[in-house]
Amino acid sequence: MPAIVNEVLKNSIAQELEIQSGDEILSIDDTPMQDMIDYNFLCKTEVLTLEIKKQSGEIEVIELEKDYDEDLGIVFESAVFDKIKPCLNHCIFCFVDQQPKGLRNTLYIKDDDYRLSYLQGTYITMTNLKDEDRDRIKRMHLGPFYVSVQTTNPELRVKMLRNPNAGKALENLKWFRKNKIPFHAQIVLCPDINDGAELDRTLADLSELKNTVLSIAIVPVGITQFREENNLNNLKQVDKKCAQETIKIASKYKKACCSDEFFLIADEPIPPAKYYGNFCQLDDGVGSLRYTLDGFKKLSLPKSVSKPYKMVFACSYAAKNMLAEVAQKLNKIKNLTIEVRPVKSEYWGKDITVAGLITSDDLIKTVKGVKCDMVVIPSVMLRPYTEDFLDGKNLTYVKEQSGQKFLVQQDIYSLKEVVDYIYQI
Predict the structure, then answer these.
(1) Closest CA to 253 of 152, 326, 160
(2) Which among 266, 147, 143 is positioned nearest to 205, based on CA atoms?
(3) N or C, where is the chain less crowded by C-beta within 10 Å?
(4) What's the pLDDT score for residue 229?
(5) Contact (Cβ atoms closer than 8 angstroms) between residue 343 and residue 402
């Protein structure tokens, strides 16, 4: 994908230069770009030359002066301008392989691109890294990266990723350490496969890499009701016993944190903030409930609202207990009523409990007919920068079918937007 401009920020250099959405940046200082890494590097200068292909096909060359660190104000359609490096694995737990047919095309894309890991925090397995990739990482000292480790047992990792190159995980991570490239590690825990003694081994190996490892997130394997038709019958859900054992093993290692789901499955309280350190892997569900709840406790609440008003939190089952605690405090506000309604995932199956996989029809079933003035949903239910759900339907459809009004909570780790809204009632 070429460097196509998606958006130009207001009052930016790009707006002043009349760069528009749809224009293509061909080069900077006569240097073509592979990705945003090149773009950011080339823009770190006070004088530069842009070669732009306008939507009309006309080529413009613009010379400009700016402050060294000043941003041009261009948002691109993609973070990479050539082909995304595809995933060459066939992981036994791959969520893409557990999806039904008929969803939007982007949901079936498997990427394993170190550039997206560096730029956007996506996870890589390092099984497709080439010598030229290593040279670039080392030369530009890129990092931190987010690495799906799963296990440091070479034979087991080959089996789990179904890729003969997968056994080099520890070798690759030691190369990171040698070159002072930091990384965050992820372990997708599959019961009877990489748990128990295998997990202990993996965490011990990772601990030997010292400060190169910034954090270790342990997350339970996700299994949908479509797994049978995709030949994934051997996978098992994490149960209470497995969750408790995993939490116990992880507690022996300073940088290892279990995701919120483990504590919910184990029927144990969510740990205090100290457990999560710097909350390095919030997007992986590690500490998101604690972070959100502690942030809410710092907010100032009104004593009353001007009229009787009812709000409903339509949430994931994973968030229901945390939001119940929030609702208990909000319900002390005079004239305000808060209700928490977790959305049952009939589409994916009962074992899927996260908000990012809630579909439009499941949401409609949850809130249709409920008497309330506003339904609050987290933005993670929608595709970024759109109002589209996973199943291709949009928020307008949900509003029409449910008869409800919706407040989309943009910052999914803060309830400040909700509280600010309450102040306006």
Answers:
(1) 152
(2) 147
(3) N
(4) 47
(5) no
- Rg of the chain (C-alpha set): 24
The one-letter amino acid at 262: F
Strand partners, 312: 339, 375
Evaluate whether 70 touches 97 at the Cβ level (below 8 Å): no
Q: For residue 313, what are the β-bridge partners?
A: 340, 376
Whole-Å CA distances, 369 to 224, 239, 316: 28, 34, 19
- Interatomic CA distance for residues 35 and 27, integer angstroms: 11
| φ and ψ of 139, to 5 deg | -65, -45
The separation between CA 84 and the C-alpha centre of its own chain, rounded to angstroms, equals 18
Partners of 394 in the β-ladder: 388
- What whole-number distance in Å separates Cα of residue 152 and Cα of residue 196? 13
Question: Any bridge partners for residue 262, and if so which?
Answer: none
What burial class does residue 38 get, using C-beta atoms within 10 Å of its C-beta: 0-12 exposed, 13-18 middle, 19+ buried? buried
CA 352 – CA 320 distance, rounded (Å)? 14
**Tokens describing residue 283:** 């997007």
Residue 100 confidence (pLDDT) above 90? no
**SS3 state of residue 420:** helix
Per-residue pLDDT band at 230 (split at 50, 70, 90): very low
pLDDT of residue 392: 82
Helix boundaries (H) for 121-273:
131-140, 154-161, 169-178, 196-207, 240-250, 260-265
Where residue 131 falls (left for φ over 0; alpha for ψ -120 to 50; beta otherwise) is alpha
pLDDT, tens digit (0-9, with 9 covering 90-100), for 268-278? 999 999 999 99
pLDDT > 90? residue 308:
yes
Question: How many CB atoms sit inside 10 A of residue 59's CB?
Answer: 11
Whether residue 233 has pLDDT greater than 60: no
**pLDDT higher than threshold 80 for residue 223:** no
SS3 (DSSP) at 8: strand
Burial of 369 (0-12, 13-18, 19+ CB in 10 A): exposed
d(CA 71, CA 45): 10
Cα 196 to chain centroid distance, Å, stands at 27
Backbone φ/ψ region at 75: left (φ over 0), alpha (ψ -120 to 50), beta:
beta
